[in-house]
Structure formats: structure tokens, C-alpha cells
Write a structure and sequence with these properties.
Distance between the termini: 28 Å
Shape: globular
Strand content: 35-45%
Structural class: alpha/beta
Order of helices and strands: EHEEEHHEHEEEHEHEEEEE
Helix content: 10-25%
Amino acid sequence: MVEFDHIIHYVKQLDTVEAEGVLPIHSGGRHERLGTENLLSYFDLRYIEYLGIYDEAIFNQHLQESVDSFARTIDVMGYEEGFIRYALATDEIHQLADRYRAQGFTPIGPVDMERKAGTETIRWKLLYIEDDSEIFPFFIQWEESKMQRLARIRQLRGDLLSPQMNIHHEVRSRKVWEAFFDVIGIWEGEVDPHTTITLSENKTPSITLEVEMDGEPVIYKGAVYKFI
């Protein structure tokens, strides 16, 4: 039903990432309605999104108008650099909204989104699950087919890597998160054949990205990368 799509790493100075980042950068663009911009580092269909604010006036207007969004997470997390949220891909975004609603959750969306990447406009839909204390992953449904996206990504980065990845997430309430994942049938942490999520409890939530690639563990702009 779902696959891992991407994880967001908020950075205050996006223009430094391409030159000094942990991983190669393959593309990027702007969310003009949100006042944010990004750079993307692909593994395969999965990627890391380095997200920054390019227009504070537009961004602040978005904060006043939105209940939840990936951009709003920057504000909720106190503008601290690091991993702030991740997205799960689906082809059944409307059905997912209904399933979460039926289980007592509060879905927001689906919301139509787009970003400008040069002369290209890329479009998708997003679904958020609102909670008073936890910042859940959000869901994304791309307008492109999976084959179209793979072709576009191969043009950007060449050969795909497809490493095993684990998102280690420290959360306030493991019980609440297990209920969230239960709706989409993730009980043992396996999101897809190449991605797992492990949970532990901590009063201060955090995310660590573990990737099966050569390299030394590093803390880069507030985010913990473990290459294993």
C-alpha cells in the first residue's frame, strides 16, 4: 500500500549544501506558494530533500493559512536544522484518508502541490494526519507514474543505488505511532523491501538516517547520518 518516498532535512542556508553536502545533489526547485526551495539527493525513487526558506513573507503567510504541512514543520520544530519529517508514497491517497478517518484520526487533504524545477513543473498530492503531540509522516501521491519518475531520476543521477535504509525515530509515544502504522499494515517496521522504520521513546523526538553505504557516521547541519 505504501513505500518510503523521502526524508526532509531542514537547513538554514540551502546554498551551501550543494558544495559541502554529505551526498551528491541531483536536482531541486521551488514551492512558490510556500516560500520554500529544495535540493534533492536521490538513491533510487527514494531521496533526501534539503529544504530551506527563500521568501520569509510568503512562508509566514503560509503558516497563518495552513493547519499542517511539510513546510509548517520547520516552524513547529523551532527552526532547528536537521531531519524534521518523512513521506510515504501511495497510489491510494483518497482511500488512505478514508481509512485514517475511520480509525479516529484527523486527515488533512489530499492537497494539490507543485514545484518549479527550471522550465518543468512537477505535481503531486499530499495527505497529512493531524495530531496534537506527534508529527506523523505524511503521504504523497505523484502525478507521474513510477516508470516516468524512474526515467527522470536516471537522467539526473545515472545508475540507481537502492541501498537498505532504516529510519530510526525517537518518538514521545510508541503506542500512538504503532496505531498510526497499524492503519497501513506496518507492524514490524518494514515499509518496503529496501526500507525499515524503528521506533523508540524519548521526550525529545529525533530522527537518525541509517544507510547501507560506505562512509563514516556524521552529524551534518543538525542531522545524524549513519553509513553502515
